[in-house]
Amino acid sequence: MRLRHSLVTACGALALTAALATPAHAATGDFSYKVVGLNGEPVTVTLHDPESEVCITLPEVADPSSSEPAFAPHNATDDFALVFTGPDCTGNEWRLRPHGHPASDRLKLRSVVFLPAG
Prior knowledge:
Elements: H1 2-21, E1 29-36, E2 42-48, E3 56-57, E4 70-77, E5 79-86, E6 90-96, E7 108-109, E8 111-116
Antiparallel strand pairs: 1-2, 1-4, 3-8, 4-7, 5-6, 5-8
């Protein structure tokens, strides 16, 4: 009985160590977009080294019933950026190249996910 308990404990510790040793990948660089500020003027927001392979709903425009979508995204990271018209990576999507040019003000978004370019 003790041997089995010790084995389970050791396996659990090994699994935890392996999980902690695996680094999370983050896109290197900045991803920026514009939102309409409280005064009605465009405000630029920047995500620095955003996490990859995780859907990021832009907090300023997360609720479609109470805000206009963000616009004019600029992907200056080393990952591809998939931008979505809806929150939680839903709706229409567009792929922006790594280190690309700023997109048009006509490109609207509410969420983004970064995918490694390699």
